[in-house]
């Protein structure tokens, strides 16, 4: 039987955590149309599942994702149909929006090469853990292209304009250890521990105030691009919404009783 291009599985220790695995290990999870469509469906599905309160995104085998499958891309170019870049609007952009806008935290378990759109997907997640020995690169300029998958924004927001320009213009690879120094990843761990480390983070988040996390994600996205007055107004409106939730009311009561709160994600 043919293996599915993307696997979606519950965490065996916590059913509130879903694990999405890009599953083309023989090609280091290079992105074909099949994989991109399956990934979009998976991310959209877990995003809408109220039983899922945190998500881990990873790759199978020795790579996280090396970006577009250039063999498939070359075949599309040679066909002369002129639709080779429709995939940006049809797949890449919706996947990044679904990850970044998911109303629950997403942790990337970067288990190997993380290149091009793969890097874009990783940076669309909220937290990242990387395996020692993993390599990162933008790679677009090397084939005469500009960035996609939101990297023009996510690299600038994460690293500043100067370093983002270096990475996109020169395309020089960087290591997991450099990524940790720059703040792109939370931790670098031995390869055999990367999924467990990501799952540990996801389990912690799954036990937290899910609605508050969703508002935090929206606030961070708005804060990166909006004037202060707009950010302040949005924060006030979000606080008013969260103030009516069971999680907030219960947490305040627990604080006053000197107890540890239990969050239900409601």
List keywords for this structure.
266 residues, alpha/beta, 2-enoyl-CoA Hydratase, Chain A, domain 1, six-stranded mixed beta sheet, four-stranded mixed beta sheet, 11 helices
Order of helices and strands: EEHEEHHEEHEEHHEHEHHHH
Strand content: 15-25%
Profile the largest sheet: 6 strands, mixed
CATH class of the largest domain: Alpha Beta
CATH architecture verdict of the largest domain: Alpha-Beta Complex
**Fourth-tier CATH superfamily name of the largest domain:** 2-enoyl-CoA Hydratase, Chain A, domain 1
Distance between the termini: 41 Å
Number of helices: 11
Question: In percent, how helical is the residue content?
Answer: 40-55%
Round the mean pLDDT to the nearest integer and report it. Answer: 95
Rg measurement, Å: 19 Å
Which SSEs are present, and which pair or pack?
Elements: E1 6-11, E2 14-22, H1 33-48, E3 54-59, E4 63-65, H2 70-79, H3 86-100, E5 106-110, E6 113-115, H4 117-124, E7 127-131, E8 135-137, H5 151-159, H6 161-170, E9 174-175, H7 176-182, E10 187-189, H8 194-206, H9 210-223, H10 228-242, H11 246-256
Parallel strand pairs: 2-3, 3-5, 4-6, 5-7, 6-8, 7-10
Antiparallel strand pairs: 1-2, 8-9
Helix pairs in contact: 1-3, 3-4, 5-6, 9-10
Can you walk me through this structure?
The chain is an alpha/beta fold and 266 residues long. The chain folds into 2 domains: 6-206, 2-enoyl-CoA Hydratase, Chain A, domain 1 (Alpha-Beta Complex), CATH 3.90.226; 210-256. 48% of the residues lie in helices and 17% in strands. The chain has 11 helices and 10 strands. Strand 1 (6-11) and strand 2 (14-22) form a beta hairpin. Helix 1 packs parallel to helix 3, helix 3 packs parallel to helix 4 (117-124) and helix 9 (210-223) packs antiparallel against helix 10.
